[in-house]
Amino acid sequence: MALSLVACGGASAETTEETTETTEATETTETTEENPDVKFVLVDTFPSDAEGNTIEVENIYAMCFAEQESGFFAGMAAALETASNKVAVVNGIAYPSNVNYQYGFECGVKYVNETEGKSVEVVELPSYAGTDVTGANVGGNYVGSFADEATGKVVGNALIAEGVKFIGCDVDQYDDGANGDSNVVLTSALKVMHLNVERALNAVADGTFKGGNVTLMADTDSTGYVNAEGRNQLSADTIAKIDAAYELVKSGAIVPAANFNGITPEDFTW
Questions:
Q1: Which of 1, 115, 178, 251 is the most exposed place for a label (fewest CB within 10 A)?
Q2: Exposed/middle/buried for residue 250 (C-beta within 10 Å: 0-12, 13-18, 19+)
């Protein structure tokens, strides 16, 4: 039986090296061109040509997400719950998706500081500052690789020993935080992929499918954080404050900084 739909998970820059991301996005594009009657749903990356340039393809619906919004909610959660008044973001490589998250996180902390009268510090180690795809120094804490599992475990175990809480990224990672009788995951920042894949599949089913590249945001409930009971360790007060801010992000009243949206954490305002 001939296929009429293929759903593809993107080679996200958050989990793979840049060369792999470009290669897999290009291979997906080539596959779609060889199968023009098949509809493709591409998740968390955009198709690219042989030179790595982003392109749109008629039979590919490709979705990415506004990581800066998810990062904003994570930054708020961290700033509202911290006992030490010190928080941090640790990333692999300063690809745009990671810088977006970092900048959003910093904006979330800034928002809490200014609306709640707090003085939470975002800790950045100069020796681990990131350099983005344009060569600009974006600060933050960048390990420099996504593949060094051994170092990741060393860093993670050291932080756990210090009583640090972690915030999951992209999906609900609460189950991954189990540590004996406790859990080290405070909450998780979300890209709401399942909802948008379902929407794309429904568009195929009802004949309204249209190819294109889209960046999904809170205005379509596509970014967020985990506030479900039993899946986070946030106080009711923290959840209420993040939920209120979510509505402001959703309406466009709050626009967190991102790598290339012309806003930096320093000049972020609302």
A1: 1
A2: middle
Higher pLDDT, 64 or 143: 64
Compute the distance between CA of residue 19 and CA of residue 118 in angstroms, rounded to an integer. 42
Q: Do 179 and 242 share a structural domain?
A: yes
CATH label of the domain that carries residue 126: 3.40.50.2300
Distance of alpha carbon 253 from alpha carbon 1, whole angstroms = 49
CA gap 29, 40 in Å, rounded: 10
- Max CA separation in the chain (angstroms): 62
Q: Count of domains in the chain?
A: 2
Query: Domain for residue 239, yes or no?
Result: yes
Q: Is residue 89 part of a domain?
A: yes
Coil, strand or helix: which one is 104? Answer: helix
8 A C-beta contact, residue 36 and residue 16: no
- Is residue 18 over pLDDT 90? no
Closest to 44 (Cα-Cα) out of 177, 224, 196 = 196
Euclidean distance between CA atoms 94 and 134, whole angstroms: 10
Domain co-membership, 133 together with 202: no
Predicted TM-score (pTM) above 0.85: yes
